[in-house]
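User: Here's a chain of 157 residues. Predict its fold as tokens.
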Amino acid sequence: MSVHFEERSGVVPCKTPWGSWYQTMEEVFIEVDVPHGTSAKEIKCRLGSRDIELHVKGEEIFKGKLFDTTMSDEATWTLEDKCLIRIILMKTNREAGNCWSSLLEGEYCANAWVQDQMQRKLTLERFQRENPGFDFSGAEISGNFAGGGPDFSSLQK
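Assistant: Prediction complete.
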């Protein structure tokens, strides 16, 4: 579901010195630019449930404690076109209110505008899941969207 929503609505990337990261309700995507011609043998990537480490050609790109927990057995990394590493982490908490404000604790933080846009995107993704007959991919949202948006669960159907 997330993939199709993201394909239609785009992503909100958080730029970093080495590339960028972005998120959906279910996943965190990390894109790392590496020198053209890099081989998989030159990459050392450790993906834990609470920590991550990436080295390319012996140089540390990043290392630290993730903002929140992930399912390490479902994490993957790929080298694309010998110039881009794509890491996909599956969030443990898959609620719209679980919007990561940084990739690592205290590092690669989203600025206030990017964080606001990420939270809006996750809230729209939640609305899309709750209302599959509607298309929220081009929608704008205002008002109470922090923490996953308003809670309509107490309303009678």
